[in-house]
Amino acid sequence: MLAEYYPVLLFMLVGTAIGVVPMALGRTVSLLLGTHRPDAEKNSPYECGFEAFEDARMKFDVRYYLVAILFILFDLEIAFLFPWAVVLNEIGLFGFLSMMVFLGILVVGFFYEWRKGALDWD
User: What is the three-class DSSP state of 48?
Assistant: First the structure.
């Protein structure tokens, strides 16, 4: 009975090895071939060619999160169109009308958010 789980165990071992071996190999090679002398300049925060000029923990406007959540929501809703398009011939008129109702609700929600100003960046 345990023989059935050998492929799962092998998968877990290979996955762990793929994650651990390159890190260990890189660390070993850097210790053997390179010098490790950190200083204040090397350890300073650096991003996009500029020194960090603001706190990394600054607060974002709530509208940023609202737009991000709306993007994820509508993006995931649109993802339902792909399987529907693949099986459109098999599901017939009922499947087509069901998707039109789904898209209608999606469009109503989109226009509601648009009218409420949730998509404005002003």
Answer: coil
Does the domain spanning 2-116 belong to CATH 1.20.58.1610?
Answer: yes
Place of tokens 């974002």: 60
pLDDT tens by residue, 34-71: 777 788 877 777 666 666 666 667 776 777 777 788 88
Tell me the per-residue pLDDT of 93-118, one tens digit each, with 9 for 90 and over.
999 999 999 889 988 988 888 888 87
Q: How far is the C-alpha of 113 from the C-alpha of 68, rounded, in Å?
A: 13
Positive or negative, the CA dihedral 34, 40, 42, 43 is positive
For the chain, what are the domain ranges? 2-116
Q: What is the pLDDT of residue 49?
A: 60
Counting every residue written for the chain, the total comes to 122
DSSP 14-53: HHHHHHHHHHHHHHHHHHHHS-----HHHHS-EETTEE--
pTM to 2 decimals? Answer: 0.46
Q: Which tokens is 107 given?
A: 């469009």
